[in-house]
Amino acid sequence: MAALFINTQLLVGILFSCVWSKDIGCKLTPFRNDVIQNGFLWNCSHQNLDYIPAIPTSRNITAVDMSHNNLRRIRKDTFTNLTPEVEILWMNNNRIKTIEANAFVGLELKELDISSCELEHASISSGAFNNLTHLRILYINNNSFKSYPDDEISKLESLGNLTIDIFPGFIFGEKFLSLKQLGHIKFVPQGLITLTNSSFQGLRNSPIFYLDLDLFNHVADFCEDLSEELFCSFPYLKGLLVSFGMSCNIKRILRTLKCLQGKDLEYFHSSNNHDVYFETSVIITDSDVEYLRNICIKELILRNNDIEGINFKLPLGKFQSCLQVLDLSSNNIQFSSNYRLWMTLILFTPNIKVIKICCQNADVSNSRNRGYSTYNDRVYKRRVMRNRRRDPYHILLPQTLEYLDISNAADIRTQETNIVVRAINLKFLNISRTEFDIQYRARSTFVSLDFPSLIEMDASYCTLNANFLSLQKLTSLKTLTARKSDVIVVSSSVRENILHSLQNLNQIDISDNYISNIPRNCFVFQRNLSITILMDNNDISSDVLAAFQVLSNISRLYMRQFNNDWDIDDFNLEPFHSRILENKKPSRSYLEMNRGEDSA
Question: If we measure between CA atoms, which residue out of 317, 338, 448 comes closest to residue 393?
C-alpha cells in the first residue's frame, strides 16, 4: 500500500508539473526531508522570475524553491500566492536588496534560505522577521554583511539551526542571547578573521553541543592574538572541531581550551594546522597540554600538524583516563627519540580502544640529535643484565585496545632483545612500512605477539630485525598480509613454525618476498581450512610447492609472476584445476590455481 501511495503521488506530481509549467517552467514533485515527511515541492528555480507565481492549490505544497531567480525586493504582498501550508522556502541566489517589515506575514515557515542574495545590514528592515515565530532553520550566509542584523535575528526564538557568515570585525553581541533553542551553528568565513574572547559572547545561552570551527587559512595575523578564552561562550559543548590551516600551529590551538577544563567531550578534532613561520617541527610540551589534561575527551584526532615529539609529564589526569580513540597520523613523530614516554602514554591509558599513528614523515636522523632520550647508567646496566638472562620484557597493551595502526611510523627502536607484546582484545593491527629496530648488542632477538582476539593483521613492507618471531597466540587471526615482510621471511625462507596454531586463517598474502623455500610443515595447522594463499612474485621452486601438498581443502592459490623455472609435473595438481596464462613480460609466466570444483 505504501508503494502504491508513493507511486500515486509521483503520477499526480508529473501531471501537475505538465499543467502548471506550461508558461513559467515550474515543476511539481513529491518531497520529503527532515522537516517535512510528506508533501510536494513547487520548484521554480532558474526561471529568471521577479515574482512568485501562483501554485497549485489542490495539492499539499509544503516546499517552494525560488532560488537562482531575479527577486530584488521582498514586500508584504510578495508571498500572496503561497499558502500557510508552505513550511520551506528557498530564495538563495537572488539579488535581494530589501526585505520589508512583515514580509512573511501569513506564512508559518520552518526553514528559510536567503543565502547568496547580496544582503547587507540595511537590507533587512525593522520588523522583517516578525512573522517567523516557527522558524527552525535559517541560511543567511554568503551575503555582504559588515555587521549582523541582530535586532531581527534575535526575534527567531525557535531557531535551532543557523548558517551565517563571519567576517572581519564580526561579533555575536548580547542580542543573540535570546536564541535559547539554537543547537547547531555553521560559520562561513569571509576574509581574514580575528578571534577574541568576545567574538562569540552572544551565543553563551545557545545549547550548541557540537561546534565546527573550520576556518582554514582565514585567521588573521597567523593567530598572534588568539585568545585562550575563545570557547568560553560555548558552555554546552560535547564535540569540537578546529582547523586553521596555515594560519597557526597546533600549539596555539591547544592553548584555546582553557574554558573547556572540567568538561566531558565526545571528541576534539584539530588537524591540518601549520605555521608558515615556524620552521622546525612541533614538540608538544607541558605548557601545550596544561588545559588538555583537565578535559575528558573520548576521541582525539590531531592529524597532519607537524608534530615531531612529546615532552611533557605524565600522567595526563582526566584526559588520559577518558581517552578511547587517538589519531596522530601524518605527522613527523620520532618514536625512537622518546619511546619510553610514548609507551607510557599508550600503556597507561586505561580505556583506549583505537590508536592510529600511521604515515609519519620524519627524518630519523634529526631526532637522534635532539637528546630527548637519555638513560642513566643504572637503567642501562639493568637492561644489559636482563638481556643476558633473556628474561622476557613484557609490554601489556590496555585491555580495551581494539584497533592499532602504526603503519608508516618511521623507526621504532628498543634496546630490549626478548619481547612479549600482549593485547587481549586487539582485533586489527597495521604495522606495514614500519621499521622495528630491536637488535641491540645481542646475537639473538626474540619477539612473541600475544593477541588472542586479533582478526586482521597487515605487516607488509615491515622490517622487524628479530631472529625469532612467534605468532602462535594469534589464534583468532583470519587475514594476514605480509608482502615483502620480515614478519614472514628471513633470508628468502619462510620462518619455521610461523603459521602454527593459526587454525582460523582463511587468507594469507606473502607476495613479493622472493621466497625460495617453505618448510614442509608450514601449513600443517591449515590442513583442512578453506584458505586463499597469494604467493605472487616469489622464487617458486619444487621445495616451495611441496609445502602445499598438505592442504586438502585449499580454496585458491595464486603464484603469478614467479621468477624461477620449474617443471609443473613435479607438483601434484590432483586437488587443483590449473591454467597457465600468458604474461606480457618476457621470461615470466602467471600460474593461478583454483580447486577443481571452483572451475567446474
Answer: 448
